[in-house]
Amino acid sequence: MLGKKLVTAQKRGETRALCLGLGMVACSMMMYFFIGITIVPFYTNSVWTTETVCKVLKANIKDKVFCPNSEGSKNEEIFPYPCLQVWVNLTASGQEVMLYQTEDTLERNPQCSYVPDKLENSKEVKARIETIASNFKKYQTFPCYYDPGGTQTNVILSRLYPSKGLLFAFLWPTLMFTGGCLIIVLVKISQYVSVLSAWQ
User: Fold this and answer.
1) Which pTM value belongs to this model?
2) Do 68 and 97 fall into the same domain?
3) Residue 108: per-residue pLDDT
4) In whole angstroms, what is the distance from residue 90 CA to residue 157 CA?
5) Which has the closest alpha carbon to 43: 156, 157, 166, 141?
6) Which InterPro entries did the record assign (predicted)?
7) Which domain holds residue 192?
8) CA 160 → CA 21, 38, 49, 93, 117, distances in Å?
9) Are residues 187 and 122 in the same domain?
10) pLDDT digit string, tens, across residues 135-194
11) Could you say which residues of the chain have pLDDT below 70?
């Protein structure tokens, strides 16, 4: 009687472990799909792939401009902010080009090097932009990214999704997939050993 209870409990444990492993594999596949349709296109479509050194030529703050209303956005997303324009000397070609924070900055407003998030306190936005401008004047030389193909003559300070960030995004689903497969394999081995022991 006790042996049957132990066998039943063992089968239940194996079933639960097998469901856990299959669930981990399914979740990792969903994460792979989500990363593949969100992050990977941004990474592959970016033309600013080569790192070089930029030297600041001038950093000016112009009068307030309005954040352009992107397609599908609401009118409430339009807000005025000081326009920071940073011009740098591209070491790779020696050209004088405009610097943008990321690829998204160029799409949101090609007139400004930095586009802040919408904040209710305009003084905070102004102080942040002044701090960024002073940092550019203080640190004259820094790494930046440019388009080696020449389709974009401007440069960006940092990529939205660099290679390390993409690898880090794939790390967690890979670990989950590996753990799920390991659990399934261990359950199958345990079942095989149990059947072999019962047969002997």
Assistant:
1) 0.69
2) yes
3) 85
4) 12
5) 166
6) K_chnl_Ca-activ_BK_bsu
7) 163-199
8) 33, 12, 11, 24, 15
9) no
10) 888 888 899 998 888 788 889 999 888 878 888 889 999 999 999 999 999 888 887 877
11) 1-10, 64-79, 92, 118-120, 198, 200
Q: Describe the crossing of helices 2-45 and 163-199 by its angle, rounded to 10 degrees.
A: 160
State the Cα–Cα distance between residues 147 and 49, nearest whole angstrom: 6
Based on the domain organization, do 59 and 104 belong to the same domain? yes
Regarding whether 125 and 62 lie in a shared domain, the answer is yes
* Integer Cα distance of 65 and 84 in angstroms: 10
Q: Is residue 41 part of a domain?
A: no
Residue 123 lies in a domain: yes
Are both 130 and 191 inside the same structural domain?
no
The sign of the CA dihedral 104, 106, 126, 131 is positive
Residue at 10 is within a domain:
no
In a domain, 45, yes or no: no
Q: Do the Cβ atoms of 80 and 66 come closer than 8 Å?
A: yes
9-13: long-range contacts (C-beta < 8 A, 24 or more apart)? Answer: 10/194
The most distant pair of C-alpha atoms in the chain lies apart, rounded to whole Å, by 87
Which pLDDT belongs to residue 168?
Answer: 86
What is the pLDDT at residue 7? 52
